[in-house]
Design brief:
By secondary structure, the protein is an alpha/beta fold. It has 2 domains: 211 residues, FAD/NAD(P)-binding domain (3-Layer(bba) Sandwich); 211 residues, FAD/NAD(P)-binding domain (3-Layer(bba) Sandwich), CATH 3.50.50.100. Helices cover 36% and strands 23% of the residues. It is built from 13 helices and 22 strands. The strands form 7 sheets. It has a 5-stranded parallel sheet, with no helix packed on it. Helix 1 links the parallel strand 1 and strand 2. The protein starts with 11 loop residues before the first strand and ends in a 7-residue tail after the last helix. Bound molecules: flavin-adenine dinucleotide (FAD) and nicotinamide-adenine-dinucleotide (NAD).
Length: 459
């Protein structure tokens, strides 16, 4: 059904920031009969990040893993207002946010404000650079659709440029050196996808160059994937060895230059490594909007990693602001799994808050004989259960149709790696895609890749 009604002054207004895992999961579950709902996000779609590494080489098309936020809100019983805009300021005292339209069409940045009764912050995080010189300028990140497109373009540029006649062997070697910084799941999955592209497609289309393409991953810690079990770390490292992907552990990138990175080796010495493409995947840091908000609560917002919230996802220091996902600093890892469960939980909490508020106003007015019953109900409604995370396991693709999985199983956990795990990886991701439309698009992309190979044209 198409939602007809919009703003209802008798209902409280929830303003939701973001259209990522946390906010989208909240939007899907929130009851719009109980609240006016407004969404503000600079991108008008949800992005299924687990398949983003596959887009960097064309295994999956970016359009297959995005879903317009309006496709999601159209299923609500009352209309949800969606603004494609960036929230640039939160004023907790007056319960007002400032939003800016960053559209290219007008060439001007229009500003507006929105009032809220409740604010739900799901703006995620931005890429961590640790302030290392040159990263922003020369590195490619892997977080958004345009990042994957940029990587794909730059990769093909490096290969085509390496084929230009009359270049020195050193320059060809540099152009064909694909370097990844960060051995977390993002860096590992990108390296794995790049390896598959090299083996399946580039070797056919660039027979003279493919053999010279080198993939190197640099990780500051003693091993990659610190969140996985030892057995799966060993499995990943040996699979990478078989795939000719070099891993430099205990190696810290100190500076990024236009054509080389400067690394510190385990013995403390510095070394320059020339590169053609540099993918920077060293995790998350808070967005400026979040840091500004934290500065407005100097006593309660002291966590370094993001917004501090209580067990009900309420911002420490505020009754009307809630925060979830990567924007927060909690005991959980910054994952889609956590963000999605928090979004669903928060929608339930908002429903319970409505029930509580309704009972509260009824208790005072009901006849004496019904009051005790209503009060019992009210007590129950006031008992808001805290958020509890249920870990479904961790998965990571490692290349050559192999994946690893750490799955919680009873009191312990099960580690598995290999081709069967890859089949599980595929089915888990397909079943987690939000819409049937996206599911069919991704399955079609996988089939297309198997039959026709990946596309090597630049965008
Ligand atoms: P996001 O999903 O990042 O969404 C943030 C939203 O806020 C976006 O819509 C953004 O446009 C919007 N926004 C930003 N600034 C503003 C602003 N100022 N005002 C309003 N809106 C704003 N996790 C897993 O569990 N499993 C995986 O397999 C997995 N794979 C991943 C692969 C990659 C390549 C990456 C980068 C991450 C992966 N993750 C995975 C982690 C997961 O994507 C994040 O933990 C998750 O996206 C966090 O959800 P979120 O809603 O907090 O933030
Ligand atoms: P991460 O924080 O998991 O890993 C970053 C890695 O970069 C760390 O191992 C760190 O030691 C290394 N590093 C930092 N600075 C460095 C430097 N100067 N030189 C060399 N190495 C350096 O980051 P991520 O991989 O982007 O993941 C972010 C979040 O998203 C995590 O919670 C992760 O679990 C989640 N994620 C999950 C999946 C999956 O489940 N398949 C995929 C991608 C991301």
């Amino acid at each position: 059904p198409t939602a007809q009604t919009e703003y209802d002054p008798s209902k409280k207004t929830i303003v939701v920031l973001g259209s990522g895992w946390a906010s989208t999961s909240f939007l899907k579950a929130v009851d719009t009969d109980e609240y006016n709902v407004v969404v503000v996000s600079p991108r008008n779609y949800f992005l299924f990040t687990p398949l983003l590494p596959s887009c960097t080489v064309g295994t999956v098309d970016v359009r297959s893993i995005v879903e317009p936020i309006r496709f999601i809100t159209r299923h609500k019983s009352r209309a949800v207002k969606v603004y494609e805009a960036e929230c640039t300021d939160i004023d907790p005292d007056n319960k007002v946010i400032t939003i800016v339209d960053n559209s290219d069409v007008k060439g001007t940045k229009d500003e507006s404000t929105i009032s809220y009764d409740y604010l739900v912050i799901g703006v995620g995080a931005q890429n961590q650079t640790f302030g290392i010189k040159g990263v922003q300028e020369y590195g490619c990140f892997l977080k958004e659709v345009w990042d994957a497109q940029k990587i794909r373009n730059k990769l093909m540029d490096c290969i085509e440029t390496a084929g230009f006649p009359g270049q020195s062997p050193e320059e060809v070697e540099r152009l064909l050196h694909m370097t990844i910084v960060g051995g977390g799941p993002s860096g590992i999955e990108y390296a794995a996808e790049l390896h598959d592209f090299l083996m399946d497609d580039l070797s056919t289309w660039y027979p003279d160059l493919a053999g010279k393409i080198k993939i190197t991953l640099v990780e500051a810690l003693p091993n990659v994937l610190p969140a996985f079990s030892k057995q799966l770390i060993d499995y990943t490292e040996s699979t990478f060895k078989e795939q000719n992907i070099t891993i430099h552990t205990k190696t810290m990138v100190k500076e990024v230059r236009e054509k080389e990175i400067v690394v510190q080796r385990p013995d403390g010495s510095n070394e320059s490594i020339p590169y053609g493409l540099l993918v920077w995947a060293t995790g998350n840091t808070s967005r400026p909007l979040i840091r500004d908000l934290m500065n407005k609560f100097p006593e309660s917002q002291t966590a370094r990693r993001g917004l501090a919230v209580d067990d009900w996802l309420r911002l420490e220091g505020s009754e009307s602001i809630f925060a979830l996902g990567d924007a927060t600093a909690t005991k959980y890892a910054p994952t889609a799994q956590v963000a999605a469960q928090q979004g669903k939980y928060l929608a339930r909490l908002f429903h319970q808050m409505t029930v509580r508020d309704q009972l509260e106003s009824q208790v005072a007015t009901v006849p004496e004989e019904e009051r005790a019953k209503k009060e019992r109900k009210l007590q129950k409604a006031k008992d808001l259960k805290p958020f509890q995370y249920s870990h479904q396991g961790s998965l990571c693709y490692v290349g050559s149709d192999k994946a690893i999985a750490d799955l919680p199983f009873g009191p312990g956990s099960v580690s598995s790696g290999g081709v069967m795990t890859y089949a599980f990886w595929r089915s888990a991701y397909i079943s987690n895609l939000f819409s049937g439309r996206n599911r069919s698009l991704v399955i079609t992309d996988w089939l297309k890749k198997n039959i026709l190979g990946r596309d090597i044209s630049r965008e």
